[in-house]
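Extended Data, record F-box protein
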Amino acid sequence: MDTPNPKRPCLVPSVTSSIENASSLPIAPGFNQSNIDMTISSFLSLSDLPLFSSPLSIGCSFDRVLDKVIPSEAGTSHDEFDQDRFLDRTLQLASLLYKSTKRYIRKRATLQNSISWPLLPELTIKVFSMLDTKSLMQASACCSMFNKCAMDRVCYSHIDLTTAAKHVDNGVVCIMIHRAGRELRSLKLGSISPSAGYTTSLLTRSCLTPLTFNHGFAGGLLRSLHLYCLSMMDSKSLSPVLSACLNLTDLKIVGLLNPVEQLVSLTRSCRLLENLFIESYIAASFPTDSSLLEVVDNCPNLISLTLLRFRLNDSIAQKLIKGFRRLKYINLSSSPEINGSFLRGLGLICKDSPLETLILRNCYTLKEREVLQFLNSLLARDFKSIKLIDVSSAYGLVSDGGKRTFEPRFPIEELTKERSDVRFVAIFESQSSLLSSRTGEVYSDGTSSGSSNYSSEEGEHEEEEEGQEGQEEEEEEHGNDLE
């Protein structure tokens, strides 16, 4: 379809503005809507006549009519003005017919889909609410019926924008939160992939501000918030948001800068927090006792705690386990200062503790002797609630002589017999050594004698993968990475 001549002044409103402001347009004297409808109906029925079955014939008729209405001879300026106005009006009428036809095609397709689609709208919305955000957007683009169902607030209860992190900006987040409204329960932002880095995100510090709009209308019932590799986020931008999310129970932040300084501020408004996961971008400094006690007081209901790359010592680790009385899962991996001395009296100090999982992976100064004493206390039934201990490390363990060992001597056979309910995992990748005991399952080749050292020989790679999968399942089971 040809566009209007840019040199000719367009003296009538555009089609879009005419449609949007139809009520403001003047009505010509003697206007009869039924006559207009009849004229358009007669025009559209031309294609049914044999003499005009060919589009070329209709096109020739258009040309002849325009030649008669607009003579080729040059006239006065007033005549040219009227001719330009007539041509613009003709183009607008053609555009109106085109757009009306497209709308009817969509309406007809929607009707056909609604007849052939086996589910009621309520069930369709229920199915859409189970989709991830990316799949939901793809479904909403299929047809008008799906789009209408996908606009229901329930479909946006769990928003996950991590799969399209490179294309998500503040506007996208605002639209998603607005669509969810009071139905918003979980929100994930950022890039989970470490290779994506911190420079590709289009999000700014104010990306979560919509959660605070209208006195926390959207954030008031939010239960889970996961942020990945958003280096621009700090306590100043997060604290107001968390203050609006009074029912938040699950907070996960990966790649937080200066986490020790921000940890206290972030937990002040999270009295109902049950799962806390903070991974520092770089090794964090030592937290003070006062800040540690405030974090414990701020989160009395904490069940799962993960602090990765924090410079925690054994005294702080013991205070954390003792302070959080409901704690069932704790992960202090990649803490370079923990040597394991806090494990000595853990069974007696926390005799009634519900702690079930203890993860100390890649702790550089973790000592073999301290882990051995802890296992002996388990054999003595000092710590009855413990179910999983993981001391896997790419650095091995520190032996009595100060050297590193990748084949520590642990009482695996005794632990398997006496505490069959406990799973002990120690994977030392550099030497492909694997020690593990579990009910009816020992991750070793089973060929060792009475020695407590187990090393995999045949199929060692398969055993390592099996052990790693077991660790991931245990983390998911204890809410380390809640969905």
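Summary. Confidence is low (pLDDT under 50) at residues 6-25, 431-435, 437-483.
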